[in-house]
Amino acid sequence: MRSKEEGMTKYKQIVSRLFYTVLLAAAWLQTGPSFAQSGPQPWQMNFRPSATPVMDDIVEFHNLLLVIEVIIVLFVLGLMVYICVKFNAKANPVPSKTTHNSLLEVAWTVIPIIVLIVIAVPSMKLLVFMDKAPKEKVEMTLKVIGHQWYWSYEYPDAGNLAFDSNIIPDEEIDASKGQIRLLEVDNRIAIPVDTTIRVLMTSEDVLHNWAVPAFGIKMDTVPGRINESWIRVPAARAGVYRGQCSELCGVNHGYMPIVIEAKSKQDFAKWLDKAKKEFANDASPVKVVRKDTIVR
């Protein structure tokens, strides 16, 4: 009798320690800096700080899944430890011959169905929400065109303003200006805050992928096809956000960074006036940074 009690006590201690260890780990992973990050941070393990409502919902859904997964793992682990302790040959020399339990069989069928419904409903809502912005709410359009191996951007609402964006080679990176190796471009995109922006994406040659983690966007640019997403950055989250091509598109796939500046509407208007003058009738050939100039 004493051996059974000691076994149960040890089992409870093991489960309790595992539970608190996983809980602390989950809390640590979910703790992130409150400021907007311009680039990757040392020892960063969580998402980039969210910059849009879409990414807010993605993080919320991720947290829900994390809780469900932790509960399932702890339950299964606890069940296995309990079985090993209570039903080993020493503690239970005469095994039970039970073969069926209707209540148990119904429970392990119904409970997983409920769990899947709890996951499916917010998942579908999120997919619909992140698909496209309602037409009546769209205030601006940004067109993204992928090339081997650089990006082109067009602002149809600004007199068809268009320009190319190339990676800055290693030897030209200026860290004092906040530039980051492999994540800096010669011409950044600018967008106004508190503005619903429709993003149209396509490609001139092969498949690319326009991915900006802080915006919750990761979408293929396909030749001959236009994909659509949307952005809305609140004024409180103005700043610089970065991304990269996330579809293997050739030898320089790793050298197609994306840099976006979310500005106040006043600053964006000033940038727009300057950009129209800078890129007006720019017929100069596109300068593609060669692989051998940036690899170390």
Overall description:
The chain has 296 residues and is α+β, with helices and mostly antiparallel strands. It has 2 domains: 2-131, Helix Hairpins; 137-283, Cupredoxins -  blue copper proteins (Immunoglobulin-like). The chain is built from 4 helices and 10 strands; from the N terminus they run αααββββββββββα. The chain has a 5-stranded mixed beta sheet with strand order 3-2-1-5-8, with no helix packed on it. α1 runs antiparallel to α2 and α2 runs antiparallel to α3. It is elongated and about 90 Å long.
Give the SSE layout.
Elements (H helix, E strand, L loop, with lengths): L1 H29 L22 H34 L15 H30 L8 E8 L2 E6 L5 E5 L23 E4 L4 E7 L4 E5 L4 E5 L5 E5 L7 E7 L11 E7 L1 H14 L18
Parallel strand pairs: 1-5, 4-10
Antiparallel strand pairs: 1-2, 2-3, 5-8, 6-7, 6-9, 9-10
Helix pairs in contact: 1-2, 2-3
Mean pLDDT: 84
**Total number of β-strand segments?**
10
Termini, distance in Å? 69 Å
3D shape: elongated
Secondary structure tally, helices: 4
- The CATH architecture term of the largest domain is Sandwich
Domains counted in the coordinates: how many?
2
- N to C succession of SSEs: HHHEEEEEEEEEEH
Q: Compute the gyration radius: what is it? A: 26 Å
> What is the CATH C level class of the largest domain, in words?
Mainly Beta
